[in-house]
Amino acid sequence: MEAINNWISCGGVEDVLFYVFAALTLLCGILVIANPFSRNPVTSAMFLVLTIISMSGLFVLLHAFFLGIVQIIVYAGAVMVLFLFVIMLLDLKEELRRKIKMFGLVAGLISVGTVASIFLKSLASVKTDAAPPALEGDTYALGKLLFTQYTLPFEIVSVLLLVAMIGVILLSKKKLE
Amino acid sequence: MHVGLQHYLAVSMILFCLGLLGVILRRNLLVMYMSLELMLNAANLALVSFSRFNNKLDGQVLVFFIITVAAAEVAVGLALIVALFRKRQSAHVEDLTSMKL
Fold first, then answer.
1. Residues of A with CB below 8 A from B13's CB?
2. What is the DSSP string of B23-61?
3. What pLDDT band is residue A90 in, cutting at 50, 70 and 90?
4. pTM score
């Protein structure tokens, strides 16, 4: 009992949860882009939903509670429903297992390798400070910052949403003039 | 080993590379779009972990804005894909080569 309490208080549970959520995120991310069992876009979309949900678990582990919930509501709730709606609307046929072109594979691996090497270089220079962080990303703190320091960007984003709405309505009209 | 900033950044990096690979290798417009979302999410994770480990809330506000912009972007992009599908009856990039010389 004593040992378990000790383990919990020094953050052992959070470490284990991090590894669980990280593994889940990466596994589902792989299944989004390369599923060995199905080429159906619906399967990809479902695995993207799982990726987003496990990523919101990571957000909660980082004490970003508000963003974790927003991630689920906006991404898994609204954006992915839109995706699924469009997939159903388009009535795509099962994608044939096209052979991946050699050129595409080489180009992809080169570009990903370049980006990854840059990332690894900068990852090695991240310094780890011993002091445990004490930041809480709850709704109150985030809302206070949003409505004091970031009021202008907030208003601009609302205009952006309006523009996107009008654009979508114009784009999806039957006849494009 | 205690989980720190580096662990979160490594997850974010791998996720970003997966998304990039998906955009380059997959030929379905919708799946490419989903890979783009994956890349955006990887950037969000990096921002949140930086904000947590630097004790500044500004990174989380930026993530909030990114989520909003991503929602707008998805709406416009999917409308474009639907309009394209109506004209061409296809959502494969290999069938959309009319701008090729």
1. 116, 119-120, 123
2. HHH--BHHHHHHHHHHHHHHHHHHHHHHHHHTT-SHHHH
3. confident
4. 0.89
